[in-house]
Amino acid sequence: MLGFTKKIEPKHGGHVIVVGNEKGGSGKSTTAMHLIVAMLQSGRSVCSIDVDARQGTLSRYIANRASFIKAMDNDIKMPSHYTVDPSHEMMAETEAAEELKRLELMIEGAYLNHDAVVIDTPGSASALSRLAHSYADTLITPINDSLVDLDVLGHVDPRKMQIMGPSHYAEMVWEQKKNRATRDGGSIDWIVMRNRLSNLVSHNNREVERLVSDLGSRIRFRTIPGFSERVIFRELFLVGLTILDLKEAAGTHKVSSSHQAARQEVQGIIGAINFIPHDQTEVKTGT
User: Fold this and answer.
1) Which is nearest to 153 in space by CA: 21, 252, 8, 6?
2) What's the CA gap between 14 and 223, in Å, rounded?
3) Separation of alpha carbons 151 and 145, rounded Å
4) How many CA atoms lie less than 13 Å away from 186 in the CB half-sphere?
5) Which CATH superfamily hosts domain 3-277?
6) pLDDT digits over 177-220, tens only?
7) 190 near 139, Cβ under 8 Å?
8) pLDDT tens digits, residue range 109-143?
9) Exposure of 9 by Cβ count < 10 A (0-12 exposed, 13-18 middle, 19+ buried)?
C-alpha cells in the first residue's frame, strides 16, 4: 500500500447560508429574507437563490420589494436574485443531470462574486435541495417549537418521550456534510432555529427543549431562538419589507417595543452565524 496526499481545492469566496427544512410553514422564506436584508444593511454584497421556485415564496417576497421600491421611489437595498425553474415530472436522466449542473454553477458563481449567498430550499426532498445543502457554510433549519415539528429532525417515542433516531432529513444533512468535506474540505455549521417560541413556559416547551438538546448532541447541530409569532411579519411580506427596513422605508425613527424586540431577534440570528475564512485542507488517502 502506497500512501499519498491528495490536495483538495478549498472553497474561496462568500459565505453560503442555506435555509432548509423538509416541512412547510416553518418560516424558511421569512428567515432567508431577514438574513438577506441584515447582511445588505451591514454593507455586504448579497446574492439570493430560490431553489423552491415552484412555491416561490422568497421570489415573491423579493418581487414585492422591487414593486415597493418602484412605487415609493425608495432606494432600500436589493440582493442579486436568481430562481431555479421547477423540474417537470417526466424529466429524463440527462436533463436532471444538466439541471443539477446549472444549479452548481449558479451557486459557485454566486459565492465567487458576492460576500454572502442565501439559498432558500423547498419543503420537500429533491436532488436540487440536496445539492444546495452540500454547499452550505451555515445551514439554518427553522422549526416551530412543537413536538410535531420536531419530527423533521428526529423520531420521538411517544410513551417514553425519548429520541428513537434521526429523521430522513437529518440523515440527508449528514450525507451532505460528507459530500461537502469531499468536495473542498469544508464543513457545514448546522443551526436549528426554534421559531414561534411562547413567552409562557409550558410542559411542551420544556419537552421540546430537552429533546432538541439531546438530538443536537447526537447529530451535531447548534440551537438558537428564532422568531416569535408576530402578525407584522405577514404584513411586511406583502410590501417586500422586513422588520429591519421599517425606519428607512417608513421615513420615521419611531419603532414600537414589539418591533424593537423583533429586530433584536434578527440580530441574535445574525450574531450566531460564524463568518469564517475557508482554510486549505489536505486529505490523506491511500492506494
Assistant:
1) 21
2) 24
3) 11
4) 24
5) P-loop containing nucleotide triphosphate hydrolases (3.40.50.300)
6) 999 999 999 999 999 999 876 655 566 778 888 888 888 888 89
7) yes
8) 999 999 999 999 988 888 999 999 999 999 999 99
9) exposed
Give the pLDDT of residue 285. Answer: 33
Nearest to 211 by CA among 160, 174, 138: 160
- What's the full length of the chain, in residues? 287
Average pLDDT over the chain, rounded to an integer: 85
What are the residues facing 222 on neighbouring strands? Answer: 191
Q: Is 155 left (phi over 0), alpha (psi -120 to 50) or beta?
A: beta
Coil, strand or helix: which one is 221? Answer: coil
- The pLDDT tens digits of the residues spanning 26-69 come to 889 999 999 999 999 999 999 999 998 788 999 999 999 999 99
The residues spanned by each domain of the chain are 3-277
